[in-house]
Design brief:
This protein is an all-alpha fold. It is 77% helix and 0% strand. The longest helix has 33 residues. It is globular.
Length: 277
């Protein structure tokens, strides 16, 4: 009975957080799913025998080297092009920013004084962090599942009869990598929220840092002198083009992304447990 009593508040906290953000969960998932289906429709429009060869030639002649490196393999075939949504910069940033928003809820509760009401119950502080870890994990996973379902549905209804579908292994790897990248920055945002008294400050700081790190990674792909710095950044460990080429080291990449997230979460537990609320 005692165990059930102390477990119940965590379930209530998670349910409350998911209930407050259910509309946002739905909007993000639907938007990403529609984007993926639209990408498959675009890929299906290349019906000529040499369409992808001409598209690849155009990219080689008229785009910078870093664009060719990042997206070149995606324009070589129908199957490859249908996966470009998973590593499109806009999609990556949307997924990352969404999880960071979810992770900064503890700072929002401090800002509005709700944390005093929550902790008025016999509830350990770390439950609030555990709640946010569970919610941000859902935020990293559910939109990816929606995209994966959209890929299957889109291919079923839009793929030309003679087109080769993308390998299920490739699509799954991209889903896992994008979820891991989002979760990684969610862990960092949770650590920032554990130090901050304002949700906007915590979220803005990590959001700006995420954009800056992505740009540095892009520079590292096109400028050899910046590559050593780019290798220290999380985004370096999720390149969709490398997955398409078969050159990605998935075990290393996912270990780095998850490891950074775990460090951020550990710092959040430590700081939130000792700070003055």
């Amino acid at each position: 009975m005692t165990t059930a009593f102390f477990r119940a508040p965590l379930a209530v906290l998670v349910r409350r957080s998911l209930g407050r953000t259910a509309g946002l969960f739905a909007a993000i998932s639907i938007l990403l799913a529609v984007f993926e289906i639209a990408t498959i429709a675009v890929a299906a429009s290349f019906t000529g025998a040499n369409d992808f060869a001409r598209l690849s030639q155009f990219m080689t002649q008229f785009t910078p080297s870093f664009v060719q490196s990042a997206f070149g393999p995606a324009v070589l075939s129908f199957g490859a092009l249908t996966t470009i949504c998973y590593f499109d910069p806009l999609v990556v940033m949307m997924a990352v920013q969404f999880v960071m928003f979810l992770a900064t809820e503890p700072a929002g509760e401090i800002e509005v004084g709700l944390v005093d009401l929550v902790l008025a119950r016999p509830l350990p502080r770390h439950r609030l962090i555990t709640r946010s870890v569970l919610v941000m994990t859902a935020g990293a996973s559910l939109p990816m599942l929606a995209m994966g379902l959209a890929t299957w549905v889109g291919l079923q209804f839009l793929a030309p009869a003679d087109a080769h579908w993308p390998e299920a292994r490739i699509v799954l790897l991209m889903m896992i990598h994008l979820a891991a990248a989002s979760w990684c920055f969610g862990g960092v945002a949770l650590a920032a929220a554990a130090w901050s008294r304002r949700r906007g400050v915590a979220q803005a700081a990590v959001a700006i840092a995420a954009v800056a790190l992505y740009l540095i990674d892009v520079i590292g792909e096109s400028w050899s002198k910046a590559l050593p710095l780019a290798r220290l950044l999380p985004f370096h460990y999720y390149h969709g083009a490398a997955i398409l080429r078969g050159t990605a080291n998935a075990a290393l990449d996912l270990s780095i992304l998850v490891g950074v997230g775990v460090v951020g979460i550990a710092l959040a537990y430590w700081q939130f447990g000792r700070r003055d609320l």
